[in-house]
Amino acid sequence: MNEFAPFPTSGPRGHAFLELGERLRRRGQLDAAATVASAGLSHYPALADAHDLLGRIRADLDDDDAATAAWQSALECDPGHAGARKGLAFLAFRRRDFAAAERQLEAAASQAPHDVTLLAALDRVRVARPASEESLRLDDPSSGLVLFDAEGMRLIGGISLTAGDATADAVAAEGAGFVRDAARAARLLDLGAWRQLVVEAPDARIALLPVGRDASLLVWRPATTPLGRLVATATRAGAAAREWLERMA
Amino acid sequence: MSADPWRRILDEVTGVAGVRGALIVSSEDGLVVAEAAMASLETADVAALAAGLASRAGRVARVAGASAPTSVRLTAERGSVIAVAGDAQLWLVAITDPSAELGRLRILLGDLAATLG
Asked: Does the predicted TM-score (pTM) go above 0.90?
């Protein structure tokens, strides 16, 4: 069989083209690898691994836009595809968007918490990233920031790439109840106005703080985030939220 | 666990500078299991409020896709409430004034809460 035949037989699912394409990519035969991957995709358009392979090839060709499209297609087929997340993280790292790279790797790590290559990549990104650089964009649905009003209605923000608007809305609704309980506890215990809530869980760290009279901000971060950094981030995010509210007023 | 070991745990917590009181609370019903140095505080109120905060924290964590919380800290103008989960649905709770060393207290509460069951 011709080495470049796209579908050497390897079992009922016929996905040996993935191995062949990857082998060609590693040899630097990128055009041939792309031909194999594209041919495979024409037969298996919903196969996330095939889009992932094409993403790697496009990235090797320095065609970041095409690589991004391929990896996003992989995530549409399989939202938990760690390879696609790693690929998008690589592209973000290459353009020095360390916050985006970290978010992609954290999303991948949430699907594969024992993948040492992922954790090592996460370490590398965090070392490379200046301490002051962290995504505090409230309009980013993957920022881990949720601003909500006293009624528990979400004003802006989101939890993560894998959690959607419904999750963010539920967090806002429960967060408002948490805030009411915190204010009540502080009042009844004569502690004055509440300033901050910090929750630790085995897989997450959460901070809440008041933003103005009628709004609060929830900050969600992975459990690997040091508590001091969580609080520092929450303080900075609170200032950004206040500015956002002033602009909306 | 008998009352004496709990007493030792609570005494260790209240021995930290800035801690106004400590208690062990059942998260199931918010009842006080043991308490220490709560002279200026209504113990039942603290227990109910701490259990309420722990419960709310659990709901927020759950809807965000996280596991059950292991600790909750409320910081206010004139002090903090820190609750750390132990075994058997018991929470170790400390009330502090603003001078307390919260980092050290957090670690101590975590160590002691692990021995509550």
From this structure: no
